[in-house]
Amino acid sequence: MTAMETGMVSNRYSVSRPFTSGRESCSGMASVQLSEAEKVYILHGIQDDLRVDGRGCEDYRCIEVETDVVSNTTGSARVKIGHTDVLVGVKAEMGIPKLGSPGEGYVEFFVDCSANATPEFEGRGGEELGTEIANVLYKIFDNKSSLNLKSLCIQPREHCWVLYIDVLLLECGGNLFDTISIAVKAALFNARIPKVRVLEDEEGAKDFELSDDPYDCMRLNVTNVPCIVTLSRIGHRHVVDATLQEEACSLASVLVSVTSKGVLTCMRKLGRGSLDPESIFEMIECRHKILRQFLGAIPAFWVQGKGATRGETSTQVPNFTHSSLFKDKYMHLHTQPYSAVCMSLSRESTAI
Amino acid sequence: MAPAKCCVPGERLCSLEDCAPGHGTYCKHGYIFASLSGYVVKKNDNGMMPVLSIVRDTDSHLLPVIGVTVTCKVMSINARFAKVQIMYIGSTALKTTFRGTIRKEDIRATEKDKVEVYKSFRPGDIVVAKVISLGDAQSNYLLTTAENELGVVVAHSEAGASMVPISWCEMQCPKTHIKEQRKVARVRAEYLQT
Amino acid sequence: MAPDSRRVRGPEESQSPLLYVPCSEAVAEVPRAVFARAGLLSQASGSAYLEMGGTKVLCAVWGPRGAPGRCRLQCELRWAPFSRRGPRSSPRQAGLLLQESLEAAVRLERYPRAELAVWALVLEERGCGLPLAVSAASLALADAGIEMYDLAVGGGLSRGPGGQLQPDPLDTEEESGATVYLSLLPALNQVSGLVCSGEWEGDSAVEAIKLCMEGCQRLYPVLQQSLVKATKRKIPEPQSG
Amino acid sequence: MAGLELLSDQGYRVDGRKAGELRKIQARMGVFAQADGSAYIEQGNTKALAVVYGPHEIRGSRSKTLHDRAVVNCQYSMATFSTGERKRRPHGDRKSTEMTLHLKQTFEAAILTQLYPRSQIDIYVQILQADGGNYCTCVNAATLAIIDAGIPMRDYVCACSAGFIEDTPLADLSYVEEAAGGPQLALALLPKSDQIALLEMNSRLHEDHLERVMDAATKACKDVYAVLDQAVKEHLQEVSAMLGDRGMA
């Protein structure tokens, strides 16, 4: 039996229920209004593996990554997928380790849905969505392997680095979660935490010495930092990297966060529809294919050790090309043609 | 007679070929499922396919829908509309009231431009009206009294006495014999208690 | 400023002593005993009480009542102050999860311009508070006579340190890391809510979800029975021929 | 402030500029597709992004409606990572509320609001990186965004700050110079008509010096104008070249 249409509607092509909750799909706060005919058009295309912008169901849009954009931060990155534009700044500040884990530093997330993205976010309008995204980010980092928190500890019980990961939403064109997770990963990759030397005098008073040399710094191992893949259920298929229009057609989506080794670190159903268990298993399985696209696109983020110093990122990674949309040192990356990338990358992924 | 079967939401009742779905059921994959918890009742209309519905006697989750006749109380009036509280739907009393609006142009069917709200309703009147729209996010239910059977049924005069209708647009106080203007409903004979 | 000699000044920072209390290593009996009862509060439109192992959840539903706009399911899930030791999870997030799980089960289109308020309280938390709240809430909604596609049944699961999958975990087991929470519409075989956290390698997540669904299927008849009982208590049998 | 010499004997400032010299300005218009107008600007190390929506129907309560002109609605926010010390919230604090008000006043003076009665124009500015002259950078970014949105204005609004250190008026203060605590003046100017849209001064300055500082700020604003005008013209050429291509095909 084919998977039942999400949201249980008896009419085959009616993709929306006439009266439903005021909250649209979770990431669709900045949602668009679509007519029934437009929805049917999108739905029919997706049944035939052809989306409005010419992509197949499991293709990403072009992903543009630019690192080191804000000099006031420890690490920063801007990621643009289609019309979704996200800026992430990581700031390392000294703090006291949490009681439960005295030998570790910790990470704090904050998501600012600025009014730039859509006027609805003005004032406190974006707070709800921001907290929701931050909660998801906490959840995907809530395990031992994502980030080596022990390396953030300076002195057990007394001092550690606190990484404030601040996400700024500049433009919202669908697929927020994926974009944000890539940007977080890129910003962590870019982060250079100054090395600290602890000096202790005779009385036991401690003094810290921060290294002045920008190259004498600690880099984070981001190999296991997960990326989120949101799969939206539309009709009888699922699509990755949905645009706002496609999100409006989808009643339910599954958010899967996955590391480069294919390990799931978090999974959530979003939206008000329901899903067939089989389709969920299908989506979980699909992550491997998506992962290969990612691996092909951004190997530097996945394999630590390449491009370790400032400025080298762009030259070491062959898939990055320069573009001058925002700035001259902009790195632009195109994941198409997907098949070619996947082929060349199966080798690389086995090496990891 | 065997006791009526009690069912819960999600329970599969029978195939669509055997019965027609009635109140409290929905169809999926060619079967009828229950969507309410209650008793299954099969009604056999002569020769037709039996209708399967779920009965809950205590049910009162009535919501105003378009076209239904409601009884309401006028809460406030201004130059453009009267605000009312819907208290009955048909002949069922509601547990919680709903707010509705009767706009000036919906008060009567003819000579709409000459209507004045204060000559039609006063706060405290009991009005029979019909729902014409559920309204949008900002507005309430929109009601109309533009039919002979719709309008004020109970009104009190300034002296506090229950007034008696004397024409379609006037009511009279039995104590003081002062006439007041109202959009009076011609109550259907079957509803009148004598 | 002169030091205050009359008072004993405490340390600048203080922590709850509960942090240092060792957790008792209880192992849940499988399956945990379930007690369900619907329709016990007279003030609410519908209500349900559900107990599993030591976890106790009370849920009440009000409505439908008039509200502008489209139909909304207003969900609130709270943990009673005495429900557990240590910090309680954020009620706001839990309410959203509850809402997401229930929305697919309720026929909201039947209630235009109305609001349904679902209010769940975890009286005692010994693991699986959220999934139990979902089950209790759908019982309460059905008890209130709200039209639903199916009962949403919640199920939880955690992976122990040895990698064994433990359905309906205790709170101590939930802390171990990897957990799955799922809400199922059993008659329609649809998943209306899903949250996995922790690391799941290979196909272990699929396996866990399947196990979780089995748990929901086991709980389903219990909920149905209690609902039938409540319906019979509440509603007189129709006298028609 | 001891130790830091803000103006060397040779007349050079900390970052090597002369007293009346601006920082390098780089601007780009039309950075976002979804907004009606947008612009990104860098003034030295200060980076700001401005987005304009509108004119559109009044959002929220209708009581804000003005019957003879458009409502200008602004929001100034700073990214939490934009400053040296992390900020707790991007907007809503006292300082950004004040900035919001200033921006609103500035642009109400410049936009031809009477052309759009009963409507609303939203201007949202975001500081991505702060290094002094935040208000001025925002005004310049917003001007470009409004031009990009095609909303008629009386003139460009060009803003620049000026300070007064060691008897010398300095134009376009950087963060280090601002932090030194001397008098500082922010000027938003309509350069063609020499009209002042907003003028604000902090700290103490002798009346006799005011004119010199004002002159420095005015000159700086006019310099900013030259740069902005250049950016707009380049953008127009780009856009018209693209349109031209389409016309040929």
Which consecutive residue ranges of chain B, at least 5 long each, have pLDDT under 50? none
Structural class of chain A: alpha+beta
How can the largest sheet of chain B be summarized?
5 strands, mixed, barrel
Order of helices and strands of chain B: EEEEEEEEEEEEEEEE
- Gyration radius from CA atoms of chain A, angstroms: 21 Å
- Mean pLDDT across the residues of chain A is 75
Counted beta strands of chain A: 16
Q: Between the first and last Cα atoms of chain B, what is the distance in angstroms? A: 40 Å
In CATH, the topology of chain A is named Ribosomal Protein S5, domain 2
Strand content of chain A: 25-35%
Domain Exosome complex component N-terminal (chain B): 7-42
Family (chain B): Belongs to the CSL4 family.
InterPro entries (chain B): Csl4 (IPR039771), EXOSC1_C (IPR019495), Exosome_cplx_N_dom (IPR025721), NA-bd_OB-fold (IPR012340)
GO cellular component, one term (chain B): nucleolus
Structural features, described:
- The complex is a heterotetramer of chains A (352), B (194), C (241) and D (249).
- Chain A has 352 residues and is an alpha+beta fold.
- Chain A has 8 helices and 16 strands.
- In chain A, strands 1, 2, 3, 4, 5 and 6 form a 6-stranded mixed β-sheet that branches. Chain A has a 4-stranded antiparallel β-sheet with strand order 12-11-13-14, with helices on both faces.
- Helix content of chain C is 26%, strand content 29%.
- A 5-stranded mixed β-sheet of chain C has the order 1-2-3-5-4.
- In chain C, helix 1 (91-103) packs across helix 2 and helix 2 packs parallel to helix 4.
- The mean pLDDT of chain C is 85.
- The longest helix of chain D is centred in the C-terminal third of the chain and has 42 residues, at 207-248.
- Chains in contact: A-C, A-D, B-C.
- Chain A binds chain C through residues 4, 7-8, 17-23, 99-100, 131-132, 135, 139, 142-145, 252, 254, 261-277, 280-281, 284-285, and chain C through 15, 19, 69-73, 90, 92-93, 96, 99-100, 103-105, 108-109, 111-112, 149, 177-178, 185, 188-203, 205-206, 209-210, 213.
- Strand 14 of chain A pairs antiparallel with strand 9 of chain C, so a sheet runs across the interface.
- Chain D: Residues 21-152, 155-220 form the Exoribonuclease phosphorolytic domain.
Provide tags for this entry.
A: 352 residues; Ribosomal Protein S5, domain 2; six-stranded mixed β-sheet; four-stranded antiparallel β-sheet; 8 helices; 26% helix; elongated; disordered N terminus; disordered C terminus; D: 249 residues; exosome (chain D)
